[in-house]
Amino acid sequence: MEDFLRSQKIRLVWLGLLAVLVLFLSLPAQAADKYWNTTVGWWSAGSNWNPVGAPQNNDNVYLYNSSADLYRVRYYNNTPTDVYPLLKINATGTGDMKLSLTESGYPANDDLIVSNEYVGIDGRGLVEHSVGTHTVNNTLFLGYQTTGQGTYELSGTGTLRWRTINICPFRRQPVGRPGDFRG
Length: 183
Known about the structure:
This protein is mainly β. Helices cover 14% and strands 43% of the residues. The strands form 2 sheets. It has an 8-stranded mixed β-sheet with strand order 3-1-4-6-8-10-12-13, with no helix packed on it. A 5-stranded parallel β-sheet has the order 2-5-7-9-11, with no helix packed on it.
């Protein structure tokens, strides 16, 4: 009888440990803040980001440049269904910060999906978009503070989908209504 009780206790301990392990493994991964750390390169190259690793679903993405150089992110993503809650594109130096959705021929290059996007916060930001679909689920800000200059160049077969576009939101008036722009 004593052996039976001991084996039952051991089973309960193992079941408890197993339950904790299953619970731990089922928790969602913590989203990260990803910062671009090179002048020109591919979005999907993990070494171009700090911390190292390409942005994943639910990561906030910061494309910042405070130098005199052109920084250009060539968009290509192996998981085009990822949704990034925040994308900020801003250059405060004399250089530029550019996101390029212009590479054709890559099957995973079709979609960039963000919740909110800021192009030119207190400096300059540029998006050049000629292929694929770029979806902004909430608000696209073009120029944010009074010194912000945001430019979105849409051409070719590119499609931009948005809920609201704000140009210099200190005006407190949305400029665009939900819809699509096509190049």
